[in-house]
Every structure is written in C-alpha cells, then in structure tokens.
Write a structure and sequence with these properties.
Layout (H helix, E strand, L loop, with lengths): L4 E9 L7 E10 L2 E7 L9 E4 L3 E5 L1 E3 L18 H13 L4 H17 L2 E8 L2 H11 L2 E8 L5 H18 L7 E7 L7 H14 L3 E5 L3 H11 L3 H7 L7 E5 L5 H9 L3 E4 L1 H6 L7 H6 L4 E3 L12 H16 L7 H8 L1 H6 L17 E5 L11 H8 L5 E6 L2 E5 L2 E2 L4 H17 L8
Parallel strand pairs: 1-4, 1-5, 6-7, 7-8, 8-9, 10-11, 11-12, 12-13
Antiparallel strand pairs: 1-2, 2-3, 5-14, 14-15, 15-16, 16-17
Helix pairs in contact: 2-3, 2-15, 4-5, 11-12, 11-14, 12-14
Bound molecules: the ligand CSC[C@H]1O[C@@H](n2cnc3c(O)ncnc32)[C@H](O)[C@@H]1O and zinc ion.
Length: 441
C-alpha cells in the first residue's frame, strides 16, 4: 500500500472541462491515482505525506505526441537542411549503424531532458524498441512506443519488420504497470508501399492497436504522392483504411480545406510539431483551421536533431504565437488552447483521455510542479499566461508519474544523469571514430 500524499497551498491549473485555476489549492493522490482536487483542506491528518506547494504551479504532466528518442546522439550533427536531404544524406546513414546500445543511451539523454522539462508521457517512433522500452520502464515515464516501419522494396524486409513490430507489441503493450503501450507505425506514405501500409493497418485491426505515421509534412511529399498514386497523402491513407483505425498523424502541414474536413470526420488525431516544421523549412500547419473543425491537435517535438531539444514548453509557446503571426489574428491559438493541446489533447493523441491529461479525481497522478516564485513569473497576473508565454521548462521542479516522483525538487529520482551523459558521449565517440558512412564523408 502506497502513501496517501497531498500537495498543499499550491496554484493548481486543472485543464479540466472548466479549466479551473485553484488558488491555495491541493491535489492528493494514492496508489498512483488522484483522490482529491480542491482548496487546501484544514485537516491533513488523513494524509501520510504533506508536500509544500507554496510558490508552485501544479499542472497535469505535459504530453509529447511525436518524437524519436533514440536520435539524441545526433543532436547538432545535421542542422539547416530540408527534410529529404537531412534524412537521406545525414540521418539514415548513421541510423543504419546504430545498435541497441546506441539507441539505449540516446534514449537515456532524451528521457532526462523530458523529465526535467515536465513531460510525463511521450509517443515515439523508432527502431531498436526493445532497448527503448528497456530504459523507459525503469525511468517511470509513460510512453506509447512504435516500431517505425520503412518498406518500399523487398517484401521479405517488409514481412520481417511487421513481424518484429507485432512481436514488440505482444511483449510490451500495456506493460510496466500500464505505462507503456504500443502503436503500429508505417513511417510515411513515401517510404512504404501501399500494400505494406495495408498490411500494417490490417494487423493493427487484428491486434486492436492504434496507428501512427508521418503525414503531409512537406510539399515535396504531397507532390510525390500525387505523381506516384494520383492523390494526395490524406486521400491515399484514407483509401488504405488508415483512418478506420484510431490514428495519430504527425505534422499535417500541407492540407486543403477538404482534407481538414476528412480528418475531422474520421476523428484523426494530429500531432503539431511546430519547431521541427520551422527548422526543416517544411511550413506551418493550419492549426487554427483544424481546431475550428474540432480536430484534436496535440504537440510534439519530433527528434532532438530537428528541434534541437525535447522541451515541450518551447512547442507550447510557439504553438500559441506562430499562428497569430501567420493569420494576423491574436486569438488564432489562445494560451488556454495551447495548454489544452499540450495536456488533454495529448491524452487523446495517445488514446488515454480517460486516464491522463488533466487533474481530476480518478485520473492518474501525472503531475508537474513549476517554481512560480521565479522572476519570470512576477507579477502573478495570470498563471495560464505565465505557463504558456513566460515559462521556459527549466522552471519545472517536480515531475510525477502515476504518483511516483521522477524528479523531486530538481533531483532526478529514477535515472542516473551523469551516467547517461557519459554513456551517450562514449557512444558518439565510438561511432565517429569508426569509419564514417559513405554519404557523410
Ligand atoms: C524508421 S524509425 C523513424 C524514422 O523517422 C525518421 N524521422 C525523424 N524525423 C522525421 C521527420 O520529421 N520526418 C520523417 N522522418 C523522420 C527517423 O530518422 C527514423 O529513421
Ligand atoms: Zn518524426
């Protein structure tokens, strides 16, 4: 039986139906689940542990709905390039050499960054998923992991990749006390044959798993899809049955009005990766239009090679401001909406909206605490404004998943930061000292 804990005298930002802010508020949790949200009670004897929340904002943990945690070893290695050159000339040649060990330590770096900046749940698409799950489980984070499947040639390779993804799903779906779930993920319409995508979708239906993919990220992709298949990526994936599954698509930058209608009709979730899309010069997704049609748009960082960090507070601010700039409408994405995208909509994106994404009784105790006493939060006019426009992620003091502290008062509780940094740098030295792949010489 775990402690019954309560955070008291905090500013609680619930992001529930009524978007309540409770001044001098409290949140209690036991066995990983929230048991109380409201004013700080006078009687605290009921609780085993009373946590001082003075000068703290308490929020639901942030949810990062698209990334590639194993890629952190390549941070800073490939900047200022468009997506296709970036992938083909820089990223894929190195990834081809990655072993489980490289991915394990790259993942370690990523998890530390996310925990330190208040992310409690993330969606990831990569290779070497056993190594990823093997470190996510003890880290205490919540994750939806996908084996990213690329298959445009040899059917034998496609069969092997799908078999590996299915075996990973069988081993890891709903594991680590339910913190790890699995989705099936064709990488993108331009890297998978239609037949392979159909096979993946059929398998997802059979195993009752959601699907995840990159979609309509660049103009190049849309034009290629039209040339190859006579339709744009949205129609292509729709015809292949992808949207009959629970589907989360990353990017959705290049969309027509009709495509937005179709995504809304099919209840497709969208992960908005604003920093990555800007850095790779892919464009700006039509987020206000998607939100207006009721699409659940959440936030993703993509990898720390196209971002170049995993600090979701940067996405939060940029998602709130970039669309004001492109539409000349200051209400295009209001602060409350951006916060909802980073929390409740994120919970939709990982298909767990009943259990995470807000601070409500019965939901998982996935919480973060922010030091509201810092200069950048003064004066205290509006906590939501401060979290969206003034926070920088490094103000997070505590990160809690399922009632367990992964970071407490700035100290990491589950991962050895020094070791992760050492091992990640050792991996990179080892990779770079071997012969470089032909493309990157
Ligand atoms: C096969 S595992 C996933 C695969 O995706 C690559 N990737 C990383 N960022 C992006 C992006 O923005 N668009 C498309 N593909 C991306 C990553 O390098 C892995 O190879
Ligand atoms: Zn991606």
């Amino acid at each position: 039986m775990e402690l019954h804990s309560i955070i008291v005298n905090a500013t609680v930002i619930t992001v529930d139906e009524s978007n309540r802010i409770i001044m001098d508020g409290a949140v209690a949790f036991k066995n990983g689940v929230i048991t109380y949200v409201g004013a700080t009670p006078e009687e605290l004897e009921l609780y085993d542990e009373v946590i001082d929340g003075r000068h703290r904002y308490v929020l639901p943990g942030l949810i990062n709905t698209h990334g590639h945690v194993g890629m952190s070893l390549l941070r800073g290695y490939a900047d200022d390039l468009p997506l296709q050159t970036w992938l083909k000339e820089k990223i894929w040649p190195w990834e081809a050499r990655f072993t489980d060990e490289h991915v394990r330590w790259g993942t370690g770096l990523s998890l530390i960054e996310m925990i330190r900046t208040g992310t409690t749940t993330f969606v990831d698409m990569y290779d070497h998923n056993e190594a990823i799950a093997g470190i996510v489980a003890p880290s205490g984070m919540r994750a939806a992991l996908c084996c990213g499947m690329i298959g445009s040639g040899d059917p034998g390779v496609q069969d092997r990749k799908l078999a590996d993804a299915v075996s990973f799903a069988k081993d890891w779906h709903r594991q680590a006390n339910g913190r790890i779930s699995v989705m099936l993920a064709p990488h993108a319409p331009y890297t998978c044959t239609p037949h392979f995508i159909s096979q993946i979708i059929d398998k997802a239906a059979q195993l009752q798993l959601p699907v995840h993919t990159h979609m309509s990220e660049t103009n190049w992709e849309v034009e290629l899809n039209v040339q190859q298949y006579g339709c744009r990526p949205v129609a292509h994936l729709h015809k292949l049955g992808m949207f009959e599954r629970s589907a989360l698509v990353a990017h959705a930058v290049h969309l027509t009005e009709e495509e937005i209608d179709l995504l809304a009709e099919c209840n497709v979730r969208v992960s908005h990766n604003v920093v990555s899309n800007l850095k790779l010069a892919s464009g700006v997704a039509p987020v206000p239009q998607m939100l207006a049609r009721g699409i659940s748009v959440s936030l993703g960082t993509d990898s720390s090679v196209s971002n170049n960090n995993l600090n979701l507070f940067e996405e939060l601010k940029l998602a709130a401001i970039v669309h004001k700039g492109t539409t000349y409408d200051p209400l295009a994405v209001p602060a409350e909406t951006a916060l909802r995208m980073a929390t409740r909509n994120g919970a939709d994106g990982v298909f767990q909206s009943d259990s995470i994404g807000s601070i409500e009784i019965g939901k998982q105790a996935d919480l973060i605490m922010i030091d509201a006493g810092k200069a950048n939060f003064q004066p205290a006019h509006n906590p939501v404004s401060h979290v969206v426009y003034a926070a920088n992620g490094l103000d997070v003091t505590d990160t809690i998943v399922a009632g367990k502290f992964l970071m407490r008062k700035g100290e990491l509780m589950t991962l050895d930061e020094e070791r992760m940094i050492y091992e990640a740098n050792r991996m990179v030295r080892q990779l770079m000292n071997e012969d470089r792949p032909a493309h990157s010489k």
